[in-house]
Amino acid sequence: MLSIRSILQAIPKKPTLFIIEGRYQNWIKPLMLMEELGIDRDVICLPGVPAMKTEWYGKIHPQRMVPALVDELHGEKVTLWDSSSIMLYLTQRYDTERKWRGRNLAEDIEIWNWLIFETASLGPTAKYWVSYDLRAEPIPEVTARLHDDLRKQYDTIEARLREPGQSYLALKDRPTIADLSVLLFADSTTSKRMGFQLSEWPAIKTWSEKMYEFEGVRKAFNEKDNWKAVELCE
């Protein structure tokens, strides 16, 4: 049994990622990156949505969502609570060979553009669509608007990947955290759930299939349903 007090007060010996059973599209991104970089870590799987809404977890993530990450930095405890900020931190801290981040400012700019595209546009729209579509009586006008917005965002990704020599989103020749960020809302699993056939966007389909060929990406995705909630005590 894991102590809430120790979670809040102790400086972690290794980066600790907070996730939840199911609803994997956000928390799996940093986990994929950790697998690719070989980062030793702890993972705390919270016991359901009610655990995210507790006062103690609000001290880690002000919006009471997942993922969140706590780590030790220069003897102090640091907390990050957005998948994009977590991945930026992990690459800055642990990606010494710059495999998943830029190697100069020009590359960084491209990565930031597509990372923010997911954070501010694709991700929120896709998450709202999925949650709204679960309603017993969705409003057709709202459903149509969300569906149209998502198609436009898929078109934006498709156009980027169709540019000459553009094998990945941010950089031409190698994947970055921008690809990991967008992937979970533009793969065959999620697109099908949103009512799309990914074959309509062949460049996205090819790119997403290629992303899952990376060992760490594939491993994190295949094991996403294996995480079970931990028991917590005061």
TrEMBL record:
Annotated GST N-terminal domain residues: 1-98
Domain spans labelled GST C-terminal: 104-232
Coiled coil: none
One GO MF term: glutathione transferase activity
Reaction catalysis annotation: RX + glutathione = an S-substituted glutathione + a halide anion + H(+)
SUPFAM superfamilies: GST C-terminal domain-like, Thioredoxin-like
Domain of life, per lineage: Eukaryota
InterPro entries in alphabetical order: Glutathione-S-Trfase_C-like (IPR010987), Glutathione-S-Trfase_C_sf (IPR036282), Glutathione_S-Trfase (IPR040079), Glutathione_S-Trfase_N (IPR004045), GST_C (IPR004046), Thioredoxin-like_sf (IPR036249)
EC number: 2.5.1.18
Keywords: Transferase
Homology family: Belongs to the GST superfamily.
Protein name as annotated: glutathione transferase
